[in-house]
Amino acid sequence: MAALQHLKHCYSTCIGTSRLHTSSHACANKEHFKMLVLGGGSGGIAMSARMKRKIGAENVAVVEPSETHYYQPMWTLVGAGAKSLASSGRPTASVMPSGVKWVKSRVQEINPDTNTVRTDNGIEISYEYLIVALGLQLHYEKIKGLPEGFEHPKIGSNYSVETVEKTWKALQNFKEGNAVFSFPNTPVKCAGAPQKIMYLTDAFLRKTGKRTKANIIYNTSLPVIFGVKKYADSLWEIVQRRDIQVNLRQNLIEVRADKQEAVFENLDNPDETRVFEYDLLHVTPPMGPNSVIKGSSLADEAGWLDVNKETLQHVKYPNVFGIGDCTNVPTSKTAAAVAAQSAILNRTITKVLKNEKPDKKYDGYTSCPLVTSYNTVVLAEFDFNGQPLETFPIDQSKERRIMYHMKADLMPHIYWHGLLKGLWGGPGPYRKIMHLGMK
Ligand SMILES: Cc1cc2nc3c(=O)[nH]c(=O)nc-3n(C[C@H](O)[C@H](O)[C@H](O)COP(=O)(O)OP(=O)(O)OC[C@H]3O[C@@H](n4cnc5c(N)ncnc54)[C@H](O)[C@@H]3O)c2cc1C
């Protein structure tokens, strides 16, 4: 209805009505698309490629301000000097499906009651269907002394394109003392990444003969080393074998970068703080929902996009869908989860377009390749219930070289040529084959 009103309004006010299209049209500062995708990250590009095939490129638009699209999982290896930052990024124009309209601006406001979105350059876009893929937000500023502390050496963070190379610099310049790694007291994307760089640091310092002069310390807000017991058991064995100190329920609250000090609070006893001197500090920032979603009626109480966890359809607005880190789907936020979700969401939208009930259900599949050195990985794969959902018929909780090659060489290829082209919906079908149809 709102879309129709908008169409009428635009028809009467636009000069050059020949620009009107059955499903997408534009006037001075108004546009309309049948399928509007917010965010051109992993989920947004994957879904726009799938929607192009379903309803035609001219009916799909993506709102995304960034000129460069990054494969973020690569940053673990960039921070450890195993890959270059340049190899993790490609121009957004090159990943945008051809013919799909790229609206190069930032969404400022979503109004699901009028089926409209407003961008920061004053354009109002109306839609019939909306896919929200806005990711999550990093909050370095919630730690006292950051982000300005990153101007000092000895500190880095693999979570941002601006700070990931600082990790590698700090690692190379490490001389002796404490190498400290943090995990915040919020939901995060890729919950394994804060400790992957710790194992790589351990491996690098062994390789360069500095390990005996280093204390490696992992201070995590969580009460466990990893959320899934099978993999946690393996990781405890690895940290013990490698003489890595793990302190649970410790939350980074302040960085005094000029003095190379990091202050942690004890979450079980908030009056108790501990100061760690460091020669290397890796910060995983607090994270939270995208502020545009948080400020709209699409959000749940905590600010995440409120979707049905099995169909990915919004719980209140049936023409709105969500994918990836921005949603309240209760699984670990990863690109692997995005892949599995993209196949489900594709099916959900197919059904909704036909006025039928969504029938395919997401099982929470997510994956975390826990890099434990420059040539080994523990490949965690699990579902909503934290139950392992392993692709290969071998014990994946063991460190394996083959899994490292999968992480470093095969997965980027699958990302650029499979997921982003809307052709990769996760390893579900292969898992079935590998397990002879038993899983
Ligand atoms: C260090 C690190 C290691 C990781 N390791 C792994 C791994 O090993 N395996 C794995 O599967 N995953 C890993 N991940 C997680 C993975 O990268 C994310 O889960 C995935 O990219 C989420 O996709 P998304 O589309 O939800 O969000 P994103 O890919 O972050 O995309 C969100 C997009 O929305 C855009 N956006 C934001 N706000 C606005 C706005 N207002 N208007 C318009 N556009 C906007 C952003 O510019 C961005 O392009 C890792 C992440 C990091 C940082």
Automatic annotation (TrEMBL):
Its main location: mitochondrion. Signal peptide: none annotated. This is Sulfide:quinone oxidoreductase, mitochondrial. Its EC number is 1.8.5.8. Catalyzes the oxidation of hydrogen sulfide with the help of a quinone, such as ubiquinone-10, giving rise to thiosulfate and ultimately to sulfane (molecular sulfur) atoms. Requires an additional electron acceptor; can use sulfite, sulfide or cyanide (in vitro). It is believed the in vivo electron acceptor is glutathione. It catalyses: ubiquinone-10 + hydrogen sulfide + sulfite + 2 H(+) = ubiquinol-10 + thiosulfate; ubiquinone-10 + hydrogen sulfide + glutathione + H(+) = S-sulfanylglutathione + ubiquinol-10; a quinone + hydrogen sulfide + glutathione + H(+) = S-sulfanylglutathione + a quinol. GO terms for cellular component: mitochondrion. It comes from Myripristis murdjan. Keywords: FAD, Flavoprotein, Mitochondrion, Oxidoreductase, Quinone, Transit peptide. Pfam families: Pyr_redox_2. GO terms for biological process: sulfide oxidation, using sulfide:quinone oxidoreductase. InterPro entries: FAD/NAD-bd_sf, FAD/NAD-binding_dom, Sulphide_quinone_reductase. It comes from the Eukaryota. One of its GO terms (molecular function) is sulfide:quinone oxidoreductase activity. Belongs to the SQRD family. Residues 34-336 form the FAD/NAD(P)-binding domain. It is an enzyme of class 1 (oxidoreductase). The gene is SQOR.
